Amino acid sequence: MIAVAFTLTLLATAVPAQAHPYGYPQTVTIAADATRPEVVHLRWKAGGVDELTLLGVELGLLPQDRVLLDGAISFQASDATILASSTPFTNYLLKQMTVSSDGHACAGAVDPPSDLVGSGVDVDYTCAGPVGAARVEVRMLSDLDPAYQTVATGPRGQRQVYGPGRYAHDWAFGDAPLPSEASVADHDRATAWKVAGSVGPLLLVAAVVSLLRRQVRRRRAARALPS
User: Which of 15, 91, 116, 182 has the most CB atoms around it within 10 Å of its CB?
Assistant: First the structure.
């Protein structure tokens, strides 16, 4: 009973049933266009479906009562469809994710998503000329909670974790030089720790539950043995 109580307490504290910035992180994939060198592609994907519902409520697309009194989120399958087809969501994406090249802003256009939950949403940014380097700023969901982070990946293994104090990052495209190997190694270590901090509690819960299940099976097996 003590073990069960401990597990329930851990589940309640480490993984609350509500949208929060400490679960699986949202992601952004950054890529150049194969045929249009002036275009930069961004694909954003939420870390969980509850975040889509919460964003829909904040944008006025879903009723306030979808956020329960205890903070839990009541997600419905139609939430993603309502959000994906809305003008407020399009405007939000273009405000929270921006691209600039050579000091000039690139014009963004949102491709209406067919599967917002599974595949995310694509945004194309057209710059004034061919892009060798671009500054990409990502602030998705930071207005809901500043602790939200976004794990971003780009061409040739480039990576970045967007979050408080680091909402802007420069990316290299085409044949543009990458950062030095030393700085890349330091950045990779920092990225690993940041991601571990986001998903660590979930892995801890899974490990504890697995351990308790093994203990229960062993006790049952011991009781089944003839005395």
Answer: 116
